[in-house]
Amino acid sequence: MKRGIAIALFLLSVHGALAAQEKLEIFGYFESQFMGTEVKSDLYQLFSNKLRLDLKSDLTENITFAANFDYITYHGKKEWNILDFLSPDIVSQVPKGMERFYVLSFSNRTFLDNAYFRLSLKHFDLTVGKQQISLGTGYVWNPMDVFNIKELVDPTYEQPGHNAIRLDVTIGNAYTVTALYSPDDSWKNSAKLIQFKGRVPRFDYSLIAIETGWLFHDYTQFDLENMNFLELPERRRLLGASTAGELFGMGVWAEFAYNWMETSDNFYELVIGTDYTFDFQTYFMVEYYRNTLGKTDEGEYTLNDWMRFFAAEQKAISRDQVYLFVQHPVSDLISLGVQSIYSISDNSFAFVPVLNYSLSANVDITAYLNLNFGKQGTVFSKDMGNGGMLRARIYF
Amino acid sequence: MKNLLAAGLMVLLMVPYSSAQDLTADDIIRKVNDQFNTETSYGKSKMTIVTTSGQKRTFIQESWSKDRGEKNLVRYLEPSRVKDQAVLMLNHADDIWMFFPRTQRVRKLATHAKKQKMQGSDFSYEDMGSGDAFIEDFTSKRLDDAKKEGQDCFTLELTRKPESDSSYSRLVMWIIKENFLPVVIEYYDDNDPDYLLKAMIASNFQVIDGIPTAMKIVMHNENDNTQTEMELLEVKYDITLSDDMFTERSLKK
Questions:
Q1: A359 to chain B, minimum CA–CA distance in Å?
Q2: A111-to-A1, A16, A105, A130, B152 alpha-carbon distances in Å
Q3: Binary contact (A250, B103; C-beta < 8 A)
């Protein structure tokens, strides 16, 4: 809480300093959310309230400052035992007496999500500070993005900021070179990135190289000294490419990344997607994802696979998945949609009907159900629980 | 339709009335097309949507255009929900990018996205798009002259070419003889050329920087009984715009 107050004071002091500037903008949103999941005949309920406060100011013609502060409170069931969602085979891999450590906690949080300044000159932008980093063309999965993992049923939700120094250099009007350094405790563990982006008629493309420290955990061993699961840090090197454009009137995109790992097995990720808007306004999208870190059937899943997935250390448990999204505006204020994620590897799928309602110009309501139809042990097993989410967001 | 139309940026190429009588449909539509595509322009506009339930939604946006509509940038200022969202269209809207400030993500869109309604309004991105759509996507036929909205008008029927991917099978356009500004455009269904989808009415004509401009455009959706009004708050023509402004980098600012 003290940290939150300190951040708030910092932002207020920034506000004071910037108040003299004519172009200081203050905006943000308040979000109230209810999430419920039926687990083993019980209904887990989690409520959250989030206040996001954004500041943005053009300090000079060439320098911009931007920051946002998030305050999130949780209510209801704030500790979810991950083992409740896993099959008995997986649970049996948990070492005796360690069951209490497999808990996902939701604690109130107050934090400075982004805070950076940007120097913009004719041929480059230099951005220094905590900032969002968005890489790749995939909608749900981004093989090139080593910084973020999107929520499968909510892939457009904003991602957290990362501490980085970023330089974007434009070459002509069609090419950009980006160099980024995201510091960690050592040079080896820090992320170094260089990306080239270009375009040809109707197509964008990019090439990327990244070196970063990557932290897997062994969730079957506990490090009593650090009171955490055993850390398995290693170096990760990635080469990737992406493209997005149009073929035969349909939107198409692809993204690929090959990862060379220092100690664990090398792997690659691939995304191919397409979308289309029909004349009657219905929007259709399908995206295929392959991740060779994932396994080819549910019999191969281990406790570590599941935990690394829940801890966002890897993007998928199963090797091949397909995401489908169909949306139609039923009125000028309401759109209805369906998302479905199918795991080809273990033949399970989730079905997610979605409703978006624009209550007023600055108030959005979003609701979805999350229904799982896989057999026990699969990615979208019924044991994962059927549930839903209701969210109201008020912008100011 | 052009983004300039959306911004209400209508340019006059004055022609003597006497010679106008002999103009063919192609001559007229070419002049209309020329009017929409000034060399450069800037517009700040207010879009008000009247929803099916009678509620009003207001958006304020800025738009810049260069190279006679070949390059376009639109950025939303209000409401807070969409603040700083931006759309970049190059190559007469064959290349489209959209910037989402909350995620700092730029997404390349295929041209089918032009069929989507712009912020839930009665304008689609196709209606707002730029380029030579009236000429490239349609064949024009001159109908009997008529009086429309109190103006003496040429009447043109535009029929979609077979190779076009326009969402409209047919347009009927009434063009003011005096200044070649369309005062009414009717848009007909993709599959049924007799089914009227929506109609646009332009009004409040003013001369800005020497160029006649429609300061207000109303699009009425006959199907949903909704209406969107686009009102120009500020217009500038033939201003200096750098090519750097029409890049992905600029989209994020």
A1: 10
A2: 10, 20, 17, 12, 64
A3: no
Confidence of residue A17 (pLDDT cuts 50, 70, 90): low
Alpha helices in A104-143 (DSSP H): none
Place of tokens 């951040």: A7
pLDDT at A141: 97
Nearest to B184 by CA among B32, B12, B54: B32
The confidence score (pLDDT) of residue A327 equals: 96
- Secondary structure letter of residue A375 according to DSSP: P
Q: Which amino acid, residue A59?
A: L
B109/A170 Cβ within 8 A: no
* Gyration radius from chain A CA atoms: 22
Closest residue on chain B to A27 (Cα):
B80
Of A231, A237, A282, nearest to A257 (Cα)? A237
pLDDT of residue B2: 41
**How close B151 comes to chain A (CA, Å)?**
32
Q: Across the interface, do A201 and B91 touch by the CB < 8 Å criterion?
A: yes
Q: Do the beta carbons of residue B192 and residue B210 sit within 8 Å? A: no
Question: Which residue range forms the structural domain that includes residue B243?
Answer: 3-251
CA B32 to chain centre: 12
Under DSSP, is residue A303 helix (H, G, I), strand (E, B) or coil? helix
Q: Is A64 an 8 Å CB contact of chain B?
A: yes
- Please check whether residue A366 is in contact with residue A354, taking contact to mean a CB–CB distance below 8 angstroms: yes
pLDDT, averaged in runs of 10, over chain B (253 residues): 40 43 88 84 94 87 90 93 92 87 90 82 77 85 94 95 88 93 93 93 90 91 88 94 88 83
Q: Which residue of A has its CA nearest to B121?
A: A332
Low-confidence winner among A77-81, A145-149, B50-54, B108-112 (lowest mean pLDDT): B50-54
Query: Cβ separation of B108 and A64 shorter than 8 Å?
Result: no
**Could you give the CA distance from residue B56 to residue A284 in angstroms, rounded to a whole number?**
29
User: Helices then strands (H, E): number in chain A?
Assistant: 3, 20
A26, exposed or middle or buried, with CB in 10 Å at 0-12, 13-18, 19+? middle
Query: Given a cut of 50, is residue A269 above it in pLDDT?
Result: yes
Q: Residue B183 has what pLDDT?
A: 95
Q: How far is CA B36 from the centre of its chain?
A: 8
| Number of domains chain B is built from | 1
Domain boundaries, chain A: 1-113, 121-267, 278-396
Residues paired with B107 in a beta bridge: B98
Task: Look up the CATH number of domain A1-113.
Answer: 3.30.160
Helix (H) or strand (E) holding B195: none
Cis upstream peptide for B79 (omega within 30°): yes
C-alpha distances (whole Å) from A31 to each of A76, A359, B117, B225 are 16, 14, 26, 32
- Looking at beta carbons, which residues of chain A come within 8 Å of B116? 277, 281, 283
pLDDT at site A3: 52
pLDDT at B10: 38
